[in-house]
Design brief:
Structural class of chain A: alpha/beta
Oligomer: homodimer
Shape of chain A: globular
Largest sheet of chain A: 7 strands, mixed
Number of helices of chain A: 18
Strand order of the largest sheet of chain A: 1-4-5-15-10-11-14
Strand content of chain A: 15-25%
Chain lengths: ~450, ~450
């Protein structure tokens, strides 16, 4: 048999024409969203002031297994997709493992991450509806960058609320977003009611994703022709991100492979949800019952491994709907962990449900071990990973090392969600030995849980 | 006929197995290098204290048309190559031009540029020779990053002399190079005789490439088991970079295309030389006599368009050989132009000779027009280009606009050498309107020409 190539690319003809909606195959559905004002299940219409119409429909759609990717979105994808499936030959050799390690690399675009897959879709639907502007939040800045690129392409205005601590730590992220023509406001800000309230309560706060979401939602609701878009957590985002796993699965099929273990970092769940959907389908329908799925989260923000499965607000200001999910409480203020994209207090309801029902595992890793894996990976694979992505690398290396012990030649697939060009302060802090780990105590977590709403 | 894809990738089988040595097909050869001590033509042996053996041989080889790419270097290439040939559909549409615009994108690797193609080869040969360490210089930082990646891969130590002004402006470049395990010293420095002399003469100078080269060469010569490597200008570098054009040409053939115009930015000439070699072959042998080749340089450092074709030192400290090339004088201190990779006083002897003999054209462009093109390109093509690469974009857009006037449907190919993630200060200065253009006066240039050595 011919040697498996380093990189496998689908042709444009082989690229997915439809997204895969994992909910259509789930044995049990996630619990419904609740309206934040009355704490009762909400319908599609309750979402219309926040999201654009087609996205509301997708959010509630748990029956259509496949949903056509609009031709214009397919065109957009063709600008930067297919993403390569890469065999980590050098890393395997360095680890001296019998395991075969693959990664799907989503960083080959200027946004530097997988976020563009959903940004393209969401902005397209907004344009179709005749909207003129969008608002969103961004933490590490990958989502804000991706969305600014999609808005530049489709010609919509965009305002990004960027978590203040990231805004200050990452001036170059701002500059990229400006280059693509969007406005950025550090959050919390004086531009919204919820922002002013949070500033009054926590003067000088560095902000959080939950807080930036509240501001972006408020601004969208009060602006004509404007809606809010979110880069993770939501069903619609996981739907769009399914393109990752569909490509991975097709690429692996081309080279005669199938993963024993699928690994992804998990903040809100968009990357792991997208990567694993096409493989989870095979587990759910019994074709591949033994595939393992591993969500990797930071020990500093351990929503799956140490959170509660409960109804909670998706934002700090409690203007967005509630979801039943693994959560640390919407007031949970994560420590200054460098993986800004993994600092959300909750987790995708779909992933939460699958985890709760035993279809996937989760591990929490400390950031110094994560950066150790990142540097090792960079030196062998010559790609500088984003800190978020490096969580998955850490777990993949750990699994490969287990294989070295056991002698098993497992096939490991992980999602390399993006590049770390804007995270060099974190790399420097690791290389200089000044990076520390932070693990919340049980008491810290109890404070967050105390804020969980009492439902029904 | 099927629509031409956005991206065309060669398969691993289709990737070049040999580099193409353009000199073997040149009607007249560039003039020989001169020994800096005696100003007489030098032989291979004179280069041995500076470069490793195989590279000395490649430097002097003007007869072998094809040179095998060692299997290990091919493996390295397969980590990040093939690079895609991209059809700029969105840019074409925005420009409303009948021209077809293609670009070969070399930024899909962590070094963010094409520099890795030669770094991989040079470090491989150094390892083969049993060397333990290498020295080099870097300006914008792309070459230093690429070399640090290759050294991490092959296990050699590396010391990078980084032009001080870039060292201070680009802390994140340093961090990337550190991540890959190399040492960096801002140049001029106290670590070399030539550095100390320059510092004495120009206290507080921001340095230049010519000066950093001198320091790196001196350090290599005085360190056991160590040699110097250079990222541009040299024949060997153009040879390694020929992989770019070989891939472009094969990819264009796959889709039934051939360029009417080939465009590349030109600092030392490595990118343009590499991109154009396979196409220049067809011009030299008469198969495609009408292809146009355009070198694009910054108006602030116009070696081809306003320099002298003369023997000159390749470095400020006059420790490296002399070459006959288009030059502004080895003392020419370019202004603080943001395209740090295009601030070299000279130009590849091969490109200089071809330009002198009328085989290619050159244009000089002001940096505000360059950044205007960069932002336009980013918004339409969703790739954030390096300022260096954006020089080629500027010229490609200008050619496409000429086609709009004339109605000609020319096929334009340009080299998109890399990404601009580390150049956000420059983007910010452009977007805020504080960027200015600098064009040296004739008097400025005369000062540089006055330093040209008198030969023979």
């Amino acid at each position: 048999m011919a040697k498996i190539p380093y990189r496998t690319y689908l042709t444009e003809e082989e690229m997915p024409k439809q997204w895969y909606n994992l909910r259509a195959d789930m044995k049990e559905q996630p619990d419904p969203y609740l309206n934040p004002a009355i704490l009762q299940p909400l319908g599609r219409d309750d979402l219309l002031p926040i999201f654009c119409e087609e996205l509301c429909a997708q959010e509630m759609n748990s029956t259509d297994r496949y949903i056509d990717i609009p031709e214009e979105v397919q065109s957009f994808y063709r600008i930067y997709r297919p993403s390569p499936l890469i065999r980590a030959y050098n890393l395997e050799k360095a680890l001296d493992t019998p395991a075969k390690i693959y990664y799907q690399f989503e960083g080959n675009n200027t946004s530097g991450s997988h976020k563009l897959n959903s940004a393209a879709a969401q902005v397209y639907y907004a344009k179709q509806q005749g909207l003129k502007c969008l608002t969103t939040e961004t933490g590490a800045g990958q989502w804000g960058t991706a969305l600014s690129m999609a808005c530049a392409h489709y010609g919509l205005d965009l305002t990004v609320y960027m978590v203040r601590v990231s805004y200050e730590q990452k001036p170059f992220r701002k500059a990229v977003i400006h280059t693509f023509g969007a406005d950025i406001i550090p959050s919390p800000s004086e531009t919204t009611e919820v922002g002013r309230a949070i500033l009054k309560q926590h003067p000088g706060t560095g902000g959080s994703l939950g807080c930036a979401i509240s501001e972006a939602v408020e601004r969208a609701i009060h602006t004509d022709g404007c809606r809010y878009v979110l880069g993770s957590v939501l069903n619609q985002v996981l739907l769009h991100q399914s393109v990752i796993g569909l490509e991975s699965r097709a690429a692996m099929e081309k080279i005669g492979e199938y993963p024993d273990i699928v690994i992804g970092c998990a903040g809100g769940g968009s990357n792991l949800g997208g990567l694993m959907a096409a493989f989870m389908k095979d587990k759910l329908d019994g074709t591949r019952p033994n595939t393992e799925f591993i969500a990797v989260e930071p020990a500093s923000c351990p929503s799956l491994t140490r959170g509660r499965y409960a109804y909670d607000f998706c934002d700090t200001g409690h203007v967005a709907p509630l979801a039943r999910m693994y959560t640390l409480g919407s007031d949970f203020m994560p420590s200054a962990n460098h993986a800004g994209g993994l600092r959300y207090h909750g987790m995708s309801p779909v992933l939460s449900k699958l985890y709760h029902d035993g279809y996937m595992k989760a591990v929490a890793v400390e950031q110094t071990r994560v950066f150790d894996a990142a540097v090792q990976f960079a030196r062998h694979e010559t790609i500088l990973p984003a800190p978020e992505s490096a969580h998955a690398i850490r777990a993949a290396i750990d699994e490969a090392l287990k294989c070295r012990e056991s002698g098993e030649a497992k096939t490991i697939l992980f999602g390399l969600t993006g590049t770390g060009y804007f995270d060099m302060n974190a790399y420097t802090s690791f290389l200089e030995g000044s990076m520390t780990d932070y693990i919340p105590t049980d008491e810290d977590l109890e404070k967050g849980f105390a804020t969980l709403p009492t439902i029904g």
